[in-house]
Amino acid sequence: MVRKTALGSVAAAALVAAPVMAQDAIDVTLGVLNDRSGIYADLSGEGSVIAAQMAVEDFMAEDKGLNVEILSADHQNKPDVASNIARQWYDQDGVDAILDVPTSSAALAVADITAEMGGAFINSGAGSTELTRGQCQPTTVHWTYDTAALAIGTGGAMTDADTSWFFLTADYAFGHSLEEETSRVVEEAGGEVVGTVRHPFPATDFSSFLLQAQGSGANVIGLANAGGDTVNAIKQASEFGITQAGQSLAALLMFVTDVHALGAQTAQGLVLTEAFYWDLNDATREWSARFEERHGSKPTMVHAGVYSGTMHYLRGVEATGSTDGETVVEWMKANPFDDPLFGQGYVREDGRAIHDMYLFEVKTPEESTGEWDLYNLLATIPAEEAFLPMEGGGCEFVEAAG
């Protein structure tokens, strides 16, 4: 089902440098495409629609002459469904930009269609580094995180020369990318990968996979999955007593909603990497309180990324007076951002948004002062260290220009 939310009306505003008349207002249609009913609904879903709405309101789009409408749809974590919706949006519904799109296989499909149709794709939910490397597109911006940043943060923190890893990996593009990137970090740190097992996406019973991981004798069991898969795997690992027996779990992609669902008693001590946490500073706390009032839960980094990416996109529309995808994305790359949720950063030529990342540890029940007081900050990973370098990444249009 496609939902519509109107968030603006025609208004006179100063666009670029010169005043324009009301009839020159720009119509902007944004499409939030994500999982609204399945395994990623809590970390993405309706919360991403609310985040986009908040961005339009906080940008005061109507006052600036932008008449913004938001559509939303459920891609069911299926690339063919995502492709069909994206094409319909561009062909029939006048969508100018697509936002969010968790599930890397779906995101890669949407990136290709967006480039073909002249739109802009501001991704917050997917993790594959291919979005800015071998399968990059000039109209894609990868805002929030990627598998390399997760590997650098969590993989680097949990590995030394004596560490062995076994991966439990979701069998699709995101899981493969996360396993590959973390393996690279582990081996560069002198650690060893002793094995891997791939599970269907999504899955509910992890018992046989966990028994293989337990039998490997690895120091660390790396969970290269996300959302409900990660939650279920951690619950079942706890039931099997895996961590009590001396093996550690590495939640390579975990969201605050996952930790909240598990509770501090089960999740305590987990080390994880995020791009955003609601309790980082006054600005994140203020925005998160407004989000929670509307959504009923704290925001994930995906929600925060939808908000911030939408804000920067709208700045580009206002500055250029255009909704052409290449035009707006070029402006986004040429102009840095100073964002209340992500801090100072910029969008590289390959589309990768560069900003700080954070390494957290889940608090013990005794440390936590409330149901959402879940993380201790272990380290800030500087923006220039958090992501893979652009050089040698295999992005064709970057290499052609350079």
Walk me through the structure:
The chain has 402 residues and is of the alpha/beta class. It has 2 domains: 3-145 and 280-355, Rossmann fold; 148-279 and 357-386, Response regulator (Rossmann fold). It is 39% helix and 22% strand. The chain contains 14 helices and 18 strands. It has helices at 45-59, 79-92, 104-117, 147-157, 173-188, 207-216, 227-239, 256-262, 264-267, 282-295, 301-320, 325-334, 383-386, 396-401, and strands at residues 3-6, 14-15, 18-19, 26-34, 66-74, 97-100, 120-123, 140-142, 164-170, 192-199, 220-224, 248-251, 271-274, 337-339, 343-347, 353-354, 357-362, 375-381. The strands form 5 sheets. Strands 1-5-4-6-7-8 form a 6-stranded mixed β-sheet, with helices on both faces. β14 (337-339) and β15 (343-347) form a beta hairpin. α2 (79-92) packs parallel to α3 (104-117), α7 (227-239) packs parallel to α8 (256-262) and α11 (301-320) crosses α12.
Give descriptors for this structure.
18 strands; six-stranded mixed sheet; signal; Rossmann fold; 39% helix; single chain; 22% strand; alpha/beta; 2 domains; 402 residues; four-stranded parallel sheet; amino-acid transport; transport; disordered N terminus
